[in-house]
Design a protein that fits this description.
heterotrimer, A alpha+beta (about 240), B mainly alpha (about 130), C mainly alpha (about 400), A: about 240 residues, alpha+beta, two-stranded antiparallel ribbon, B: mainly alpha, 4 helices, about 45% helix
């Protein structure tokens, strides 16, 4: 199966950009090609999944993405320092100008992820399509990746977990973090935060495909990578910081 | 080696002994509690092969699914659960009546999979945010 | 005391010490079990301060393990007799400390049941994985080295083995320093100076540990350290203590110089509460100034004063590691430089951490393991460093 076919739709609602032409390449929303084809899918190296977050559409009050993330992954939503948070809203204020921004921060799915470099067992890894994951079957819970991550994107599971989503196993003693909703993406769905955003502030797509709505949008507006100085080449880009 | 690792090694040895029991005299082994409804289809492989190889199948497919994103394969842990979950409990572990545990408790092979994996069949899990403690 | 009575005293004290060591070790293992059972929720660690007290203990022991071997290296690599007779004890202490440190590191893992994964799956870009390799290599090399010293037929190999251990140990401490040195994301770490800094620290801490163990053994056997040996060891300790202070100072001064690091230095040197306190008082005064005075002040520099100096160096080491490891993490990550940040996940806020009892017990358990290996090893192997007094008198007539 080619990478084009398994591409999740860039957005079911009106897209950020007028990049609807890109939709022409794809089938109607909602159809899962896996079921159509009846075969298994695999992550393709031709694709690099990425996200664009337009923070000018975010308000400090809105936590829709965070809530959706917690619900999808069965996170408690508690915010003690020992609780897992895969996606959080960071409120920023420019120290000189006082300008503010409200920014959703999650795993940045770097092309050169520090967590993958430092992981002693290779449990932290990057899939062929650019999604950075923790293989919780190989994770020994040393937390070196948490030391290395510049984005504080990972959490350590400090206590037993119950009532997991069958599609999102998680448990005590391992490190976890945003997985770009890999279980949804592989089914041709969007990451849940993207889908839940009431303001269409997030755009999901293939960074490698110049015709994807995401790539087109990245060509037309100014975007930044967080801590671009580190040269990690993040898969998550921001507009408006 | 940590205590846990030593304990694990011992458990594994016990498991191997149990397996040797399977190989030599199938009849001495109590049958697992099978509640799978044949109407839902047959197992992913013949019962004899499943008994012998299910761990390797699971581990092989686990890496394929996780690392390569191979979805929709015949073997999957959620697949096992969807057929083998107990009729009442909806789970594959929790008591010796449940499929995976019925055998594993006997073979003394610890199954830590369900520390993370939801042991209940998909439909029976309420989609609410779970507690973390 | 008659011979028999002293023997009985000796034996009962030996078992007393072993019993004490076992008790602390068991407490440590109990703490490990408790933490494994409940998860790290019962520790003081959290998602901001991910490495805590166990890591302070573990890194201290691993760094000191490498440094304690210095004594043997000076003997065999540089051919100094005074140190040669101390080489076996130095090797044993190295194995004991390394074992204790690794035990703590392993038992603190979130999934200690999977250590076997760490031993079989290497990711060769990981400094941690290099260290797993370096630590196991160290065990092997030092064991061989000890063997060459104890077995007469192997004596000729002792020098090359000592040399191999010397080189390996330098790489090992470089590796330990690099665990932090390669972490570019964090303000406190990601500096090339950390590797040499860890090497000099290892010299000081290792020698301090060695001196304390040697003093206890001498007291036990009613022996006295020859003044010329004392002089050499205390001078060496002073050089290493001063060297450590120099590197720590250089690390902070260069940081102050980099504009993007000044906020962190302000935190760790001035405003960070317990961390500056430990750094200045614990490391600066107790760990550096006092030991140097104890060694050099006229009238001091006695075996007893040097013993206190060594203890001070070790206390200072723990204080320094606590500020370095825990203070370094408590300072918030600068994810958005130039912005004030706040969030539900502790962005922009200093992370809270206070050591919990299980963590401390686990760390002490590692110390107890090292203590037991040393105590039993010394007894079985007769590793008491005995100087050739005649030769020493001849060489140092002035003493």
């Amino acid at each position: 199966m080619s990478d084009k076919e398994q591409k999740p739709l860039p957005g079911r609602r009106a897209l950020l950009s007028g990049g609807a032409a890109a939709l022409g390449l794809l089938v109607a929303p909602g159809i899962r090609l896996i079921e159509v084809a009846g075969a298994s899918t695999t992550a393709s190296p031709k694709v690099r999944w990425g996200l664009l977050v337009d923070t000018t559409r975010c308000t400090p009050e809105c936590k829709a993405c965070v809530n959706a993330c917690n619900a999808e992954n069965h996170l408690s939503g508690a915010t003690a320092p020992t609780d897992s948070q895969w996606l959080r809203k960071v409120e920023l204020k420019d120290k000189r100008t006082g300008r503010t921004a409200s920014v959703p921060v999650m795993c940045q799915h770097c092309a050169k992820p520090a967590c993958v470099d430092v992981c002693p067992t290779g449990a932290s890894f990057k899939r062929a399509d650019g999604i950075v994951l923790v293989d919780r079957h190989a994770c020994i819970g040393c937390r070196y990746c948490m030391m290395a991550c510049p984005y504080k994107a990972r959490s350590f599971v400090h206590a037993e977990v119950h009532d997991q989503n069958p599609e999102v196993p998680r448990g005590k003693g391992c490190v976890e973090g945003c997985n770009l909703c890999v279980h949804r993406v592989d089914k041709g769905q969007l990451p849940t935060c993207v889908e839940a955003c009431p303001n269409q502030a997030m755009l999901f797509g293939d960074l490698n495909d110049p015709n994807s709505a995401l790539s087109q949008r990245l060509r037309t507006i100014a975007t930044t990578q967080v801590r671009a100085d580190l040269g990690l080449d993040t898969g998550v880009r921001y507009h408006g910081i | 080696m940590s205590l846990a690792a030593i304990a694990r090694t011992l458990l594994l040895a016990a498991g191997l002994a149990g397996l040797a029991g399977f190989a030599s005299a199938d009849s001495r082994v109590p049958k697992p509690t099978i509640q799978a409804d044949p109407a839902n289809g047959t197992c992913v492989a013949p019962a004899a092969e499943m008994r012998r190889n299910h761990m390797d199948m699971l581990k092989h497919q686990r890496d394929k699914t996780l690392r390569e994103g191979e979805r929709g394969a015949k073997v999957s842990l959620n697949g096992c659960i969807s057929c083998h979950a107990g009729k009442q409990s909806g789970s594959v572990v929790g008591s010796r009546q449940e499929f995976c545990e019925s055998c594993h408790a006997y073979a003394a092979v610890k199954l830590d999979c369900f520390e993370c994996h939801q042991p209940k069949a998909g439909a029976q899990v309420a989609k609410t945010a779970g507690g973390e403690r | 005391m008659t011979g028999a009575a002293s023997k009985r005293f000796d034996v009962s004290h030996f078992y007393g010490l072993v019993g004490l060591g076992l008790a602390v070790l068991l407490a440590g293992l109990g703490a490990f079990h408790y933490m494994e059972e409940h998860g790290h929720i019962v520790s003081g660690m959290n998602n901001q301060v991910v490495w805590g007290t166990p890591h302070v203990f573990a890194i201290f022991m691993i760094v000191a393990a490498s440094g304690v071997l210095n004594v043997a290296s000076i003997g065999s690599v540089f051919g100094k007799t005074v140190y040669k007779v101390r080489a076996p004890l130095s090797g044993l202490l190295c194995l004991a400390l390394l074992g204790g440190g690794l035990m703590v590191l392993m038992l603190d893992l979130g999934r200690p049941d999977r250590v076997i994964v760490a031993a079989t799956h290497y990711n060769f870009t990981s400094v941690f994985a290099w260290n797993v390799f370096l630590y196991s290599g160290m065990f092997g090399i030092v064991a061989v080295y000890l063997w060459t010293m104890m077995e007469r037929r192997m004596k000729p190999l002792s020098k090359p083995a000592g040399f191999a251990a010397f080189i390996w140990r330098l790489i090992l401490t470089t590796g330990t320093g690099s665990i932090f040195g390669f972490l570019v994301a964090r303000q406190a770490y990601g500096s090339a100076i950390l590797a040499p800094m860890f090497i000099v620290m290892s010299f000081a801490w290792g020698l301090a540990v060695f001196y304390i163990v040697q003093s206890v053994m001498y007291a036990w056997n009613g022996m006295e350290l020859h003044p010329s040996v004392l002089r050499r060891m205390k001078n060496l300790l002073a050089v290493f203590v001063a060297g450590t202070a120099y590197f720590v100072a250089a690390y902070h001064v260069t940081n102050i110089y980099f504009a993007r690091q000044t906020e962190f230095e302000q935190f760790i040197l001035v405003s960070g509460g317990i961390y500056p306190l430990l750094l200045w008082l614990g490391f600066g005064v107790v760990g550096t100034l006092v030991p140097l005075l104890l060694i050099f002040l006229p009238g001091l520099g006695t075996p007893r004063a040097v013993l206190f100096a060594s203890a001070g160096v070790i206390i200072g080491a723990f204080a320094l590691l606590y500020t370095f490891i825990i203070g370094g993490q408590a300072f918030p990550l600068q994810i958005f430089p130039g912005f004030e940040a706040s969030s539900s996940f502790g962005d922009g806020a200093v992370g809270a951490y206070s050591p919990s009892l299980p963590e401390v017990l686990l760390g002490l358990g590692g110390v107890a393991a090292a203590f037991l290996i040393t105590t039993i090893g010394v007894r079985i192997l007769h590793f008491l460093p005995q100087d050739d007094l005649v030769q020493l008198e001849a060489a140092n007539p002035a003493d």
